[in-house]
Every structure is written in C-alpha cells, then in structure tokens.
C-alpha cells in the first residue's frame, strides 16, 4: 500500500459496531500524594474528607509514595462530579493494607470500600466490598455495580468511601491507596479515529467514533488545551456541534484544516434526549507541514506525493503545506525548507563534507557541516563507531517537546571520539539550544598547557531564560586539563547559567557517563543567578545519575544554583588529586531541596576539606541518605556556612541519615559556621579504624557557631580513637588544632546513640549505649555498595528496637526517616526503630 493511500485512510469514516465503553471517572488525588511530605497526622488529603479523629497521610504505601491511613471507625470519602445514570456500570478498584497495630503487629485489620450517594447529610451505601489484612501486604480490591432503571439514586452524584471496621481493642490502622473509578455506559462513545495518542495525523481529518448503544446524538468538543476541553460545556468555545451521526468533518470547523505540528484534544459526549454523559478526552497530533506521507519524516517520498498531487490535483489532495486549498510551488517551498529533517551521518574515514550527509554512503567527514547546519525537531546526527574528529562540536537549532534532536553513534565498535586537542575552550558546546539528547560519544580536550575554564562538555544558558530537556548519556569524558584554580576552574562536564537575562535549565540529565582525569572538576555547575535578594533563578529538574568519576583534579560532583536537584547512584574513586585549594566529593552550593543518595565516594585526597560529602551554604534542606563514604583523607561530611545574609540562606535544614562511613580520616563530621542551623544526623554508621585518632565531631566558628544540631540512633564504632572537639585554629594544610568539647555551638541534642570502643570525652547522651552493637563484620567494606553487609545488625544486638523518634517532627518532610533503611528494608513509623543503618527488626 502506498504512503499516500495510508495517509488518505485517516480521512475515511471507519464504521464500528455500537458498543458500551469504559472510561475513567475523575477522582481527585487518587494516590493521596497531595499534600506531599510523608507522614502527616490529622491532615486530610486534598480532595478527600474524613469523619473521625484518628487519620492522616501515611509515609508508606503500595507504590512507594503516600497513602490515606484511618484509625478504627474512621471514614475517608469523596463525592465525585459524576452524575449517576441508568445503565451505567461502575467499577471501583483500590489497594488496602494494615499499616500498624499495637502493641502487637499480629492483629487483624478489617475494612470496607463503598460506592455511595448522598441523601441529605447522610452517605448511603450503593455497594461495598470488605477485606482484611494481618501481614501489612497490599491487596487490590474491586467492586462493580450496574444502575437499574428503578434505582432511586439516579441523578445523584457518585461517591467513594473507605472505612476501618476493625474490632481489635488496641490501636490498629488501615491504609488505602491507588483509587480508580470507571464507568461503562451505553451512552459513551469509543474507538476514536484518530486513535487516542495518534501522531502525524492529516490536517483535514474526519473525526469518527463508535457510538454508545443508547446514544442517539453526540456533542463534539475540540481544542488545543486538555483542561479546557475536559471542562468544556455547550457554551464553551471548544464546543463544535451536536451531531446525530458518529463522525465530525474538520472542514466544518475550518476549511483549511487544523494547525500543523499541534496537539489537539477532543471529547465526545453521548446524548439521549435530556440525558447526556461526558466522554473521555482523547488527543492526536497533526503532522508536520510537509509530512505528506504521515510517517513523521520529511523525505523523498513526500516529494513524490507532492509531485503527484501537483500534476493531478483533485478532491483528495494531500500535499497541502501552505494551506490554500491547492498544490503548487508554495507547497514545494515549504517542503524544501524542511526536507533535510531526518538522519545525518558522519564518518571521518570514508565520508566527504561535499556529500548530503543523509545516508551512510553520503556521510559527512568532519564537524564543519554539522556546525554550519541549523537542525530542527526530530533530527538525528549519527557518528560512525570507531571514528575520530578534531576541533569543536557546536550544533545549532532546537528540538521541541517529544521531538528532541539526537546525537548518537551507528555501527559497532568504540564510541566516536571528538578531540579538542586544547585548541578550543570546549570540545562539545551546547549554547542557548534546547531539547537535545547526546549519547555515546568520547570527549577529550588535552592541551600542551592548562587553560582557564577549559572543559570537555559545556552546556550554556546565556541570557536566554529557561532551556529545556538537555540529556547527556553514556559519554566518556577524559583528559581535560583545565585550570586547577577554583576561581577559573576547568571541568569534564560543565553546566553554566549566566548573562544579563536570568537563565537556567529545566530537565537537565547527566546519566551513565564515565569521567576520568578531568581538571579541575568532574561534573559541576555554575550560575550567576544565586542572590536571594536580587536574582534567584534556580535550575529545575537537574538529575546527575549513575556516573563513574575517577582521578578528578578537584571537586567531583557539584550542583550549583538548583531547586530539587537529584544526585544518585554515582561512584567517585579519587577526587582532589591535583588541585591545591579546597575541594570535596559531592556537594551542592546555592541549592534548595537537593537529594544526594545511593552514592559511593572514596579516596578524596588531602585535608583542605577532602571530605566525601559536603552540605555547603546558601542551601536549604539538603538531604544526604543511603550513601557510602570510605577512605577519604578529609573525612565523611562537611557541613559549613557563614551566617545567613540578604543574599544567602546559610546552611539550613541539612538531613544526614542512613549512611555508612568507613575509615574516613581527619574528622568524620566537620560542622562549622553561624549559618549552620537545624541539622539532623540520624541512623548512620561511623567506623573509625585501628590506627586512626580523629574527632568524630569537629565544630568550628565561621561568622558564628552552629545551632540546633540533633544526633539520634547513630552507631559510632571506634577501633581507633574517636574524639569530640572544637577548632581553635586552622593550619596551612587544612587541618585544625582543637580542644575537647563542642565550643560555642548551641542546642546540640544527643539521644539513643551507640558509643562503642575508645571514645574520648563523648557528649552527654541520656540514652547512650556503650555495649558492642554486634555488627556482622565491621571494617569489611571495600569498593562497592554491595560489600557492606558487615554493617548489618545480628540477632541479640542491643540496637534492635532501641532507636528513638523523639525530636523527629513527622509533619516536616525533612525529618521523617525516609521509609527505608540502607538496604531497602521498610521502616516502622514509630516505636520499633533500630539504631544504625539496618532495620533488623523488620
């Protein structure tokens, strides 16, 4: 079948038998994820009401997010906007589980789920399903009901209700999650054409559907905004017409058809006399202007179709790009302007820059034609495996949502190599472009001498506002000899925001890259827009995940100027290998709500900082969890910052939980500065090996002293000597002279910590344990997160069920326990917490 015929078929009315169709009824907040923040006692989830006094949002659920919890005889309910109609068949599906019972976890919870309607002030059951749970496993429940013509509640609104019916005399709670409500109605349309989510649809499409068995007319809605179409009524601008057939001709809406490259949303309501039922919102995307074959690619086949229509124009013309109801040179002009859309090949061995670049046989040879081309959404630039290029790659043009521009490799072999040879500042430069995905390249930039700001990869937002969707994946970036000075630092992968206009990134992903011997830094950012009093404009949705960094000259991973940055599953072996100023492994600067988790950092060299991790200043709510730090010269964790000011937030609300530090030297925690406030450090395991004599805590003065620092449920295990001290002066090599005690720091709270081994002048902990915590095999960790089972608890450990949640505010998302221990075991919310990073008692 020809491509033109395939495209024409989408114009043809497709008749299907009349059938009933199931569609979703809108349930507000069905996963109980709003408001966010984990455990929230006495808080009603958005969209839901509760009758009773023992309820709230639970931090654990069936899908790892949140759920609704109800105490005995408490009810949670929601009245939907759906009007009950005769013939409707409703299906309610939900998950339920026992969240807790006390004093024993062996009690049985019982509960029910209802469909109901409201009669006056009462909620009246239509149908219900009952369930029970002992072992706290999630179970899925489903109930159905078909509305009969004589049911008294026709015309009422349909509601959902959950109730904890447990009869156990003690406390027992039930969680509900993942609520789904559907209606299968004889009025509803189904089988939309174009299909829901269809792409490359012709601009003059004929909308068609299968009518509901009882529908004798349909109301048609169409628009470019989902919410507007979803909420539309017959008086809205999205209302097209009421038709007594099962199709709607777009030519009745616009003789020139729909807009190219646009997503349209449409809805068909079933009508029978005075009754109507709102249908599901479907969507489709109109093809690009010159994509006459409707395959998403503008190529030679589209030129053939245009030529055929130009010569034989008739009623069913397809090759309209200019939208004037005829095919001529104007349509040809549109096609030629976009004809190059597709794939471009580069082969330094057999290519030729005079070729078209549109096939492997016509591949370009160098970077020059790439740099001279402005690419458009959907383009792909493919380098042949095993080939090498010199100079700078600086591609131009931007993609669009769902149509990024992609750089990748083709063929088998090593990643294509691009070598800046030190002749360019950046080997790969993406400046003021967006919607790019770069994969599987080898990047290097080694010059005869060091150069200020030299990089392997630079992503730059320069006076351009917000740049979206830049993904760097599976890059091998190595041997970049930039400046080793922090003020002019070079970098392997560098993302930067600067200029006269506030600029930033939204959806920047750096994933599965290998960064080796890059100076000064590994993967780092920089932003000119971090002054909270004048130009705060943080990047959003920045993710740095799954990267391996080795032999880095200075800082290894450093987010800068971000909101909600996620740094996870990275491995760092060797940082601060060559610089002479202060550097650390992984740390944010001028960032809010950073999450740093599941990372391993080792062998950071030297004591000018030299820690594996750092919670630095002008940052709020930095979270470090499930990380492994070992053999770092400067220690495990730096928490520092001068007093807060108009431009800086200080270092506020740091949480350090469920981490393991093994044989980190010089000082375990270095906590310094008047900006360091409200720090929570709990359920970590710190191992100080034989031969080490270090402060586990070293406090310091930097425009003031830290305030309100909390230590709970930590295992501090010293085969060497562990001290607790405050700095009196700093030496040239970054080490400190110190005295015993916590200096002038204020409001330090210690509770339920283990001090085992040789501890000199430990702080007062009213619930301290000094007995052997009975770990499986301390000091047995090596390289790899999978080598740490030696830090699990054994049966009989005094740490089991000996932890506390005192001081942990469960209404504050920063201070909950995270739901999981270091090994991914689920944690209890209260009472039975173990001390350390392992929840043995689960």
- Percent helix: under 10%
Report the structural category: mainly beta
Number of strands: 61
**Poorly predicted runs of 5 or more residues:** 1-20, 810-815
Major beta sheet summary: 18 strands, mixed
The Cα radius of gyration reads 32 Å
- Terminal-residue CA separation: 62 Å
Q: How large is the count of helical segments? A: 5
Which word captures the global form?
flat
How much of the sequence is in beta strands?
35-45%
| Mean residue pLDDT | 89
Describe the protein.
The protein is mainly beta and 842 residues long. The protein is 5% helix and 41% strand. The strands form seven sheets. The chain has an 18-stranded mixed beta sheet that branches. 48% of the residues are buried.
Short overview:
With 842 residues, this protein is mostly beta strands.
Descriptive labels:
single chain, 842 residues, mainly beta, 17-stranded parallel β-sheet, 5 helices, flat
Give the arrangement of secondary structure elements.
Layout: H1 3-9, E1 21-24, E2 40-41, E3 49-51, E4 55-58, E5 67-70, E6 75-83, E7 89-102, E8 109-119, E9 122-133, E10 139-146, E11 157-164, E12 171-185, E13 190-193, E14 198-201, E15 206-210, E16 217-223, H2 226-231, E17 239-243, E18 247-249, E19 263-272, E20 275-277, E21 281-286, H3 300-311, H4 329-338, E22 343-346, H5 368-371, E23 380-384, E24 388-390, E25 405-410, E26 417-419, E27 426-431, E28 436-439, E29 442-445, E30 455-462, E31 466-473, E32 476-481, E33 491-498, E34 504-511, E35 514-519, E36 521-527, E37 539-545, E38 548-550, E39 557-558, E40 562-563, E41 566-568, E42 571-575, E43 595-597, E44 600-604, E45 611-615, E46 619-620, E47 623-625, E48 628-630, E49 635-640, E50 651-652, E51 655-657, E52 660-662, E53 669-672, E54 676-682, E55 685-688, E56 693-700, E57 707-712, E58 715-730, E59 736-740, E60 746-751, E61 754-760
Parallel strand pairs: 14-21, 22-23, 23-25, 24-26, 25-28, 26-29, 27-30, 28-31, 29-32, 30-33, 31-34, 32-35, 33-36, 34-37, 35-38, 36-39, 37-40, 37-41, 38-42, 41-43, 42-44, 43-47, 44-48, 45-49, 46-50, 47-51, 48-52, 49-53, 50-54, 51-54, 52-55, 53-56, 54-57, 55-58, 56-58, 57-60, 58-61
Antiparallel strand pairs: 1-12, 2-4, 3-6, 4-5, 5-12, 6-11, 7-10, 7-12, 8-9, 8-11, 13-15, 15-18, 16-17, 16-19, 19-20, 19-21, 58-59
